[in-house]
Write a structure and sequence with these properties.
- The chain has 480 residues and is an alpha+beta fold.
- 62% of the residues lie in helices and 17% in strands.
- The protein has 10 helices and 8 strands.
- A 6-stranded antiparallel β-sheet has the order 2-3-4-5-7-8. The chain has a two-stranded parallel sheet with strand order 1-6.
- A hairpin with a 7-residue loop joins strand 4 and strand 5.
- Helix 3 (39-59) packs antiparallel against helix 4, helix 4 packs antiparallel against helix 7 and helix 9 packs antiparallel against helix 10.
- It is elongated, with a radius of gyration of 40 Å.
Length: 480
């Protein structure tokens, strides 16, 4: 019974493996996935939309609003004197439209009705229309504070849009770095497998020599040890490959249930594109800000800080508001009669007042000072971070790449010389002039040099990808 269960499980796993979709990985496929629905891309979009939402939330203050109220009041209390009757019940409603203006003003129109009953009046009713107007006379006079707030939000949205583009490009470049790490891993696997095959041939030769009493058993053991060592190297490289694929699947969930196979690539074409781009970057004596969005971000940040200071400087200012209303009304007993009175003999009423609010405690002054200090430090930190990144990425990346090129040049020389050495060592080994151990040491030295050469080439590519996260618009073919 257990055997049947195990067999069923194996069959099921085999069926899942067969059914698993295979995807051929290329840079074009990665770009397509980034533009579609990668979670990081959606998170970047969400971050931008949250800033856009704040601006729209502010603009809601200047939309038309329908406002209304209805009240009913009834009491059984006694009057103080017959000359001062108690009015009960009292009914009222008010419906209108109001709108805030960017000039620090607010306007509105409404229709209203008020009805009351007392011992002298039965259903005394006042009907009519009104117009309201209010204006900030000091803090937000003629909308200077509103204008500053609007500019702050406008700059925030503009900067968020620029940062959205940079973050998307950075995410794409992160995926490209994983892709090229897989390419480097594949190249290292090729080199390691070729040498493994060579080791297997050497093992066959060693056993033959041992049988013919030409070599000792230690030579056979060394051959077997070398095969085990190279197999371990290959297994380790395969493990690194699976780790890279796992990282890719975490960033692109559409790949999570698929078998990822590396597509075709051209090392020669990529090398030419790298050299061309490096030469172009090296030709700039100063940071090429025309190929970066960070200069626009700096301008936006400066403008936002300037407007934010206006807002902060008004933090402790007094609020002085003019509030006024004009009403045209008709007044008599009954709803319909009151409207008739409005039409035939409407009267006008007017009210106006000043509302003042002045901070008297010291807390608002301290809050204003803290806010001013916070604005300044935030601006300086963001500005210095951007300036440092823009300058450092250009000057330092060029130096780093030049050093890596020198490393590759020396490694090429090393590999070339080791190849010559290995050729002569192999000849001497066949002539029994050197030991098998010397041959293995030279082979391993060449293997290590070739693997390091691939790793250095990968370092140049990843360094260049980091450069493109800042200079996103650099017109290099490799910056696709």
């Amino acid at each position: 019974m257990k055997i049947l269960k195990v067999a069923s499980l194996v069959a099921l796993m085999g069926a899942n493996t067969i059914a698993q979709e295979t995807i051929t990985l290329t840079e074009d496929i990665i770009k397509k996935e980034v533009n579609n629905s990668a979670p990081n891309t959606l998170a970047i979009e969400a971050s931008y939309l949250s800033v856009e939402f704040q601006r729209e939330l502010f603009e809601e203050n200047f939309d038309f609003n329908l406002v209304g109220s209805a009240n009913y009041y009834k009491t059984s209390e006694n009057s103080f004197t017959p000359q001062i009757p108690v009015s009960s019940p009292i009914k009222s409603y008010k419906v209108g439209v109001e709108k805030g203006l960017g000039t620090g003003m607010k306007i509105g129109v409404n229709t209203f009705s008020e009805q009351m009953t007392s011992s002298y009046v039965n259903k005394g009713t006042t009907n009519g229309f009104g117009a309201q107007f209010s204006m900030d006379l000091y803090k937000n006079f003629l909308g200077r504070l509103t204008s500053a707030q609007r500019e702050v939000l406008k700059e925030s949205v503009q900067r968020a849009d620029l940062q959205k583009g940079i973050q998307k490009k950075s995410f794409y470049l992160t995926l490209r770095k994983i892709y090229w790490s897989l390419v480097a891993n594949n190249e290292q696997l090729k080199i390691s497998k070729e040498l493994l095959e060579l080791s297997k041939k050497q093992l066959v030769d060693s056993k033959k020599k041992y049988r013919n009493k030409i070599a000792e058993i230690s030579e056979v053991s060394r051959s077997e040890s070398q095969i085990a060592d190279r197999k371990a190297r290959i297994i380790n490289l395969q493990y690194q490959k699976e780790v890279l694929i796992q990282q890719l699947k975490e960033l692109l969930p559409n790949f999570s249930n698929k078998e990822v196979v590396l597509g075709s690539y051209s090392i020669d074409n990529t090398s030419k594109e790298l050299l061309s781009c490096i030469a172009q970057i090296s030709s700039f004596n100063e940071a090429p800000l025309q190929y970066s969005n960070y200069d626009e971000i700096l301008k936006s940040l400066q403008s936002e800080y300037s407007q934010q200071r206006k807002i902060t400087n008004s933090y402790n200012a007094a609020n002085v508001n003019l509030i006024s209303e004009v009403r045209r009304l008709g007044k008599t007993e009954g709803y319909s009669n009151a409207w008739d009175k409005f039409s035939d003999d409407g009267r006008t009423s007017f009210s106006a007042g000043i509302e003042v609010k002045i901070p008297l405690g010291g807390s608002t002054s301290k809050s204003e000072e803290l806010q001013r200090l916070l604005d300044k430090k935030r601006f300086i930190s963001q500005k210095e971070e951007i300036v440092a990144k823009v300058n450092a990425y250009h000057s330092q990346v060029v130096k780093n790449i030049k050093l890596l090129q020198q490393v590759i040049q020396q490694q090429n020389i090393n590999s070339e010389k080791l190849s010559i050495t290995l050729k002569h060592t192999k000849k001497k080994y066949n002539q029994a002039r050197v030991s098998f151990r010397d041959l293995i040491l030279d082979q391993d030295a060449l293997l290590s040099s070739n693997l390091l050469e691939v790793q250095s080439q990968l370092s140049i590519i990843t360094t260049l990808m980091d450069y493109f996260t800042v200079y996103t618009e650099m017109p290099c073919k490799i910056n696709n």
